[in-house]
Amino acid sequence: MAIYVDFVQIKFKGHKWCHMLADSLQELHDFAAFIDVDARLFHRNASYPHYDITVQMREIAIAQGAIPTDRKKIIECAKKLKVELNDQIEQSSHS
Predict the structure, then answer these.
(1) Of the candidates 92, 18, 12, 2, which has an alpha carbon nearest to the alpha carbon of residue 52?
(2) Rounded Cα distance, 87 and 93, in Å
């Protein structure tokens, strides 16, 4: 299991932002909490589930073990996380 950060730097509200993903949603949420990323920065309804993090948060994530990675790996993780999230939503609707 691993945490990944991309190289994107989207300017928004006076900051530069990038994306943080992982091999699983639980690992992603646990790591985000560990490095003190606000849960409101999780985007479950985006085209794929991820956290938006500032470039400064990205540096903290990397210092704590996140792996800077290319678009190919980000897309691979994004697809897995979307399937996992959709499975969770479906399971909760049957409860």
Answers:
(1) 18
(2) 10
Q: Which of 39, 71, 68, 42 is nearest to 55 (CA)?
A: 68
Helix/strand/coil for 15 = strand
CB neighbour list of residue 75: distance below 8 Å, 6 or more residues apart: none
* Per-residue tokens: 48: 């794929």
- Is 67 within 8 Å of 2 (Cβ atoms)? yes
Nearest to 4 by CA among 82, 72, 69, 54: 69
Q: What is the pTM of this model?
A: 0.88
Query: Which pLDDT tens digit goes with each residue over 9-38?
Result: 889 888 899 999 999 999 999 999 999 999
The CA distances from residue 34 to 8, 25, 37, 42, in Å, are 22, 14, 8, 14
